Amino acid sequence: MTASSDPASPNVSSALMDDSRDPLATSLADCLACLQAPEADPAARAHWRAWLDASPERQRRYDELLRFWTALPAAEERRRGRFLLGRTSLGRTSLGATTRATHRPWMALAACLLLLAVAGWWREEIWAPSPVELHYAAAQGEQKRVTLPDGSSVLLDADSQLVAKFERRERVVQLMRGQALFDVAHDAARPFIVRARGGEIRAVGTEFDVQLTDSGVDVTLLQGAVLVAPPYASSKDEPPRREPRQIARLAPGQQVSYRDELSAIRTVDPSIAVTWREGRPSYLNRPLGAVIADLRRYVALPVRFADASVADIRYTGTISVNDLGSWTRALESAFPIRATVDGDGAIVLAHRRDGF
To answer: 198 in a domain, yes or no?
Structure first.
């Protein structure tokens, strides 16, 4: 359906350029003019809203055009009731002229927007300044909450780091190390992407946790929905192959992991998955060596293993980082382990010769 089929929105923009070059841009200009005019016919409004709802691409490009329009000083004047584009050179307009030209200011603005949009000039020079990299980090034993430029909130766990780079079409965050809980501000036109070890987590408005581990990346969804994709396949002799990857769509209370490939989706208790917010990280079937390494993000933990087999023992549980001494002693009752203190004050974990 083209804009000219709507009698309430005369297609003045089609007179400014060849409609065959970008007919969607032409229709979007007329759609904007109608929906932003308070005096527009209700039936015409309903027609254009149905037209937008029928296509996500139309809605996305309409949102881009609308954001640009709201940035124009003339738009602010129009919202205040100052019909600047309809005034005469003497600064006055007769009632008759105002009545006859109800849509003319909006059509003129829409036509200007159309020309700028098609030329690509406003996208590059006005609406999308050069992106700036923002670096955030939390030190050992520290948690830090940061607010990103789009209003999204991130809680960085201890010894964690990320880099944010927001562009016109997407918001990108690179998790460099550690763990972070993301509460994403909704923006359907710009997906929120977290990149971690070559994989991607995509969201629009949601809350999810990403942790870098010794074995890969864990993604846990608390609210909303996310898509998770592992890294592209690659080899030592070939560049990464840009072919379709596995994709997992998570629902709240689900978790998935990846290194080279996606794991099976697991059902978890979201409240347990983020107990690290209270200084109580949780681990599910993790090697004891990996647990000790992760705990060093919180405190300088002087623990050594007498042999590698102790580090390979699988551990599941929640640990208070404020009482690690009690936890290491409790390991002796839960596993065939003996904890002793070495001469330099380090805790040494070894297998007990008598078993349990």
So the answer is: yes
